[in-house]
Amino acid sequence: MSAAKIDVPEGLNEEYYQINTDILSSFNKFRPPLDIFFLKEDVVRLKPYYRVGGRLSMEQTEELPELTNQGLIFVSRKDHAVYVKHISYQLDLVLIDKNLHEREIADIFTQALTRRLEEFLDQPVKPVFQKLYTDLMVLTEYLITDIHRVRALMRRLHKEHSLARHCFNCGIVGLALYGFIYTNNFEEGGVRRKFFDRLTLGLFLHDMGMSKVPKFIVDKESPLTTDERNKILQHPMHGVEMLAKLDIKYPELEQCVMEHHERLNGSGYPQKRSGDDISSLGRLCALVDSWCAMITKRVYAEPMDRLEAVRALIADNGYDTGLAQQLQVLLVERLK
Predict the structure, then answer these.
(1) For this UniProt entry, which residues form the secretion signal (predicted)?
(2) Is residue 84 part of a domain?
(3) What CATH number has the domain bearing residue 135?
């Protein structure tokens, strides 16, 4: 039978993480990746227990789980970068560690999901996809219980473009906008988890077909040739082909992949759809895809101001004006 956990002294968690046994067990048994501190209850002060570079004794490895279970083991928030990197490789730990601040969890998701996207876009095969899928499901579990948590992630959008960073930005902005529009549904438990999971996949993976476009074309600063532009225009179809090879048949994901470059006025591609022929998720993804591209630094363009970018999309009849206006409200009123 484990001992009762102590009450953490006021203010202590502002400087230290109080770790639990699940977090402890994720560390190397003898060489944890960061300093560990032990709370001396009689003087209510933290004392060094282990320093990085050393090695825990066998006796320490045996007593440490029980001390942790009692709430007596801490790590310094000064080691935040190390802690973030560690948990980003075992993302489900963010659902366990109740001492992490919301902004710290946002840092962990940003690092973990961007890395997983890089791995998948570099090698889009089933085993790599499964790792990305697992981490995205941790994100949906985290957000569906409180969609307002996505705001901390919105404040961590990447400022420089790469395909993985763009996919991360689009995933977060798309979920933030959807959550803003349907806040009441989330708060009342009316959002189906299966739909939310598939929406998340669609938003994060909508541009997967761009991984098949040669990098020299993507990074080209001068105007594209006709042949080069045609290769760009084919990337939604490449994305659909990739889904087929992965045996993924979710309609929500297919709509985001196929329709994110379609435009309401018929000027988009690859199928020149217009108006009601474009799904609601296709419209959402199209808006998010363009806005996220406009606000990041690319090799051929400087980033636009975020509000200037959304105003440009509101004025463009190729996009859903109502959605664009909602994005503007989200940026102005809810993310100050």
Answers:
(1) none
(2) no
(3) 1.10.3210.10
